[in-house]
Amino acid sequence: MIFNKDTAEKTAELLLQINAIKLNPENSFTWASGWKSPIYCDNRLILSFPTIRNYIRDEFAKNIEKQFGKPEVIAGVATGAIGIGMLVAESMGLPFVYVRPEPKKHGRQNQVEGFLQKGQNVVVVEDLISTGNSSLLAVEALRAAGANIKGMAAIFTYGFDVAEENFKNAKLDLYTLSNYQNLLNLAVAKKYITEKEESTLREWSVTPSTWGQVDSN
Fold first, then answer.
1. Which of 80, 85, 160, 209 is the most exposed place for a label (fewest CB within 10 A)?
2. Cα–Cα distance between 36 and 136 in angstroms, integer?
3. Is 52 marked as binding a ligand?
4. Is 157 annotated as a binding residue?
5. What is the mean pLDDT of the chain?
6. Average pLDDT value for residue range 125-134
7. What is the per-residue pLDDT for 217?
8. Is the pLDDT of residue 216 over 60?
């Protein structure tokens, strides 16, 4: 669910402007999962544009407090959300921790890095939601450390049904600054893509795990 429509449209436009989101229906990208995709999202680029990162920071800070109440800690999911999560924590005057994909193999073998007390209210900041699996693993680690997770706030989501189901099963509310629907609407309106390309992008979003696969039969 998006925080609000105006923010969703503005965020989508900014991501397209800096090529954080690349749309290429003719020559698909291959994700780490092996999925073929006509879209690639790299929100790390936001950190290189001060005006845009400040906008994202401020929208996060404002909407997190409005939706979840002011938490006691902001947690970022490594590695994509460490930078923006820390900016949000700084803006809100809150402690910051981040969550590794898995515990370190040496030293204290931490998965949650930073000072976190049991029972503290935490909002998790994420950069991108696809299936939600890696994001929810971070939530599990925080809960195992005793955190009370108020919700998750992400920059962008593809809006897959599987992600919605995963968050529902985890009993976790997810809010995002923008999403795939608002992105496509804006991309068409601003002529980033043609109507034919829009059709391809909408078709992909229905069956993303099998889209673009060649039938060998």
1. 209
2. 23
3. no
4. no
5. 92
6. 94
7. 41
8. no
130 is in an annotated binding site: yes
Strand, helix or coil at 134? helix
Determine whether the annotation assigns residue 134 to a binding site. Answer: yes
Residue 129 marked ligand-binding:
yes
Whether residue 56 contacts residue 155, with contact meaning beta carbons closer than 8 Å, is answered with: yes
Measure CA of the first residue to CA of the last residue in the chain; give whole Å. 39
How far apart CA 87 and CA 96 sit, in angstroms, is 9
Residue partners of 129: CB distance under 8 A and separation at least 6: 135, 154, 156, 157, 158, 163, 174, 176
* pLDDT(50) > 70: yes
Binding residue per annotation — 193? no
pLDDT mean over 17-40: 87
What DSSP letter does each residue of 62-115 carry, written as one string? Answer: HHHHHHH---SEEEEETTTTHHHHHHHHHHHT--EEEE-SS--SSTT--SEES-
Supply φ then ψ for residue 153, to 5 degrees.
Answer: -125, 125
10 marked among binding-site residues: no
What is the per-residue pLDDT for 56?
Answer: 98
CA distance 187 to 196: 12
Backbone φ, ψ for residue 39 (5° rounding) = -135, 145
179 among the known binding-site residues?
no
Using left for φ > 0, alpha for ψ between -120 and 50, and beta otherwise, residue 177 falls in: alpha
pTM of the model: 0.92
Is 104 known to sit in a ligand binding site? yes
Question: Is 127 known to sit in a ligand binding site?
Answer: yes
